[in-house]
Amino acid sequence: MKALVYHGPGQSSWEDVPDPGIQDPADAIIRIGTTTICGTDLHILGGDVPDVRPGTVLGHEAVGEVVETGRDVRSVQPGDRVLVSCISACGRCRYCKEGVYGQCLGGGGWILGHLIDGTQAEYVRVPFADLSVHPLPGAVSAVDAVLLSDIFPTSYEVGVIKGNVRPGDTVVVVGAGPIGLAAIATARLLSPGRIIVLDPAAARLEAAKRLGADVIGVPGEQPEALVGDLTGGLGADVVIEAVGRPEAFELCTRLVRPGGHVANIGVHGAPATLHLEELWIKNLTITTGLVDTYSTPRLLTMLASGRLPASELVTHTFPLSKVSEAYEVFSRPAETAALKVVLEGEPVETREVVRTQ
């Protein structure tokens, strides 16, 4: 099969690799129909995730068809159309029993496109399939559903839920890339009083307005002054960091009110300064986190009922074979206005559909 293979910082290629096979009775093999590129993939290519070894197939988001299952798989069978979660869960360890799947101790967590081969390929092996893939309703499109592999549960769980967004709150989202935009959409589900979005890119600010932002920070405007004016000098109840840069995190800590919450979603590749000499007295709650995807079934229900504007984040679509070109577009959002880039699998040689005994 063909796949996008990582060869070290700044290096990847679309090339022939062996087809995946069942390695454990809990595995499923999925033929990829739709996948996408995540900002984390750019961090990998930038050398920020050293755990990824050269030779690894990238990608951790997909919708596809089950073509083979191990003998222990019960929730799906060959022929099923499924969502592949970015997080794999053994279901047996302490963390999985608590629903904290991202910290799985049994060989799961974030492994696809990280510790094992991922989804930017014609086929992928998904471990622990019973907890790591989700059957899709027929009415849900693949383009909508693939955004629930990662960015929507990440924004909802790590940004909105950990940030403790409540009705009437003033919420600031720093960064209007795909994760920040999904944070806007999922924060609205909890009826905040006002959502303020800060980003230097005009196209992303316009997208933020379409997805429900009440106020956008015009480039050049002082964000502290804007938030102060809108909150009577108090600061925001919740500030969500969706960039992954030290200056963005430090800005968040200046925008939040005493007793408020800073929820860091961004993937950081460099240290950020925590000004405890200023913050210790403010009674702040600062949270970080890798998504657990416990919310995926709930989000799929909301997607099916039209409550989540998922596909509005998609700006570009490419054939999977043009994945290198798609990366080029996705990595230059200021020039291309790219938000979420979707890759659609092309017809491939039919693989025998089988359930392993």
UniProtKB/TrEMBL annotation:
Matching CDD domains: FDH_like_ADH2
InterPro entries linked to this entry: ADH-like_C (IPR013149), ADH-like_N (IPR013154), ADH_Zn_CS (IPR002328), ER (IPR020843), GroES-like_sf (IPR011032), NAD(P)-bd_dom_sf (IPR036291)
One Pfam family matching this protein: ADH_N
Presence of keyword Cytoplasm: no
Gene3D superfamilies found in the cross-reference section: Medium-chain alcohol dehydrogenases, catalytic domain, NAD(P)-binding Rossmann-like Domain
Annotated stretches, region: Disordered: 1-20
Alphabetized SMART domains for the sequence: PKS_ER
Keywords for the protein's UniProt record, in alphabetical order: Metal-binding, Oxidoreductase, Zinc
UniProt key word Oxidoreductase: yes
Domain (Enoyl reductase (ER)) ranges: 8-343
Domain of life: Bacteria
Cofactor: Zn(2+)
Family listed: Belongs to the zinc-containing alcohol dehydrogenase family.
Stored PANTHER family: NADP-DEPENDENT ISOPROPANOL DEHYDROGENASE, ZINC-TYPE ALCOHOL DEHYDROGENASE-LIKE
Name by which UniProt lists this protein: Zinc-dependent alcohol dehydrogenase family protein
Protein source organism: Streptomyces sodiiphilus
